[in-house]
Design goal:
Helix content is 57%, strand content 13%. A three-stranded mixed sheet has the order 2-1-5. Strands 3-4 form a two-stranded antiparallel ribbon. Strand 1, helix 2 and strand 2 form a beta-alpha-beta unit. Helix 2 crosses helix 4. It is found in: Secreted.
Length: 208
């Protein structure tokens, strides 16, 4: 029994190490954005979406929906102020709930965010986008999360992560490649993310 347990643990550990090594070779792209920001919507729809689909095995994407918002805990309750108003706060919470939902696969999360950001009203397009990924049964759960304490807590945590980059962000979306902010890379990435990925990739993807 102990031998079997050791073999299983070794297999799990080896698998984790192999995945970690594989991820080390991926271009890491972190996007700090807002759900109703025109520049964020343009970047995710015209830059990130095609790069994610063409370079899926070569990149690792982290999405942080918060932007230039602020958050304060007043009498035990989170209060948010978002650059484009309350609807954006709700839209940010909705995407935070999607990104942290363990029942969704990473591909589904990306497709949902890309669908929402391509919609004229990202804060109101949840059901349409859930239908596209055949997850309509998750609608009530997502809406309850976004409108409740869970959504508040998730957005506050994304706010803390955003504040570690810059408080407030000087530009939204802020794009960080390989975990190090570089203004020149940021300026290029918002207009030609593919060129950035092709230049910094350790193993050049075929699409380059």
């Amino acid at each position: 029994m102990r031998t079997l347990l050791f073999v299983c643990l070794a297999a799990v550990l080896c698998g984790a190490l192999a995945k970690s090594k594989k991820d080390d070779n991926k271009v890491k792209i972190a996007v700090y954005y807002e759900s109703l920001c025109p520049d964020s919507r343009r970047f995710i729809s015209s830059q990130l979406a095609p790069v994610w689909r063409d370079f899926r095995g070569a990149i690792k994407v982290k999405l942080v929906p918060y932007g230039k918002a602020t958050h304060d805990n007043i009498n035990g309750k989170w209060q948010f102020t978002c650059q484009h108003g309350p609807d954006e706060c709700y839209g940010n919470k909705m995407q935070a709930c999607i990104l942290k939902d363990r029942s969704l696969h990473d591909t589904e999360k990306m497709e949902l965010v890309m669908c929402l950001m391509a919609n004229a009203s990202p804060d109101k397009a949840l059901d349409t986008c859930l239908e596209q990924v055949k997850r309509s049964n998750s609608s009530d759960k997502m809406k309850n999360c976004a409108s409740g304490a869970a959504g508040d807590q998730l957005l506050a945590s994304y706010g803390d992560k955003t504040d570690l980059v810059q408080r407030p962000l000087s530009f939204v979306p802020t794009v960080i490649v390989n975990e190090k902010f570089d203004q020149a890379v940021q300026d290029e990435a918002v207009n030609d993310l593919k060129a950035v990925v092709c230049r910094v990739a350790v193993n050049k993807p075929a699409a380059c």
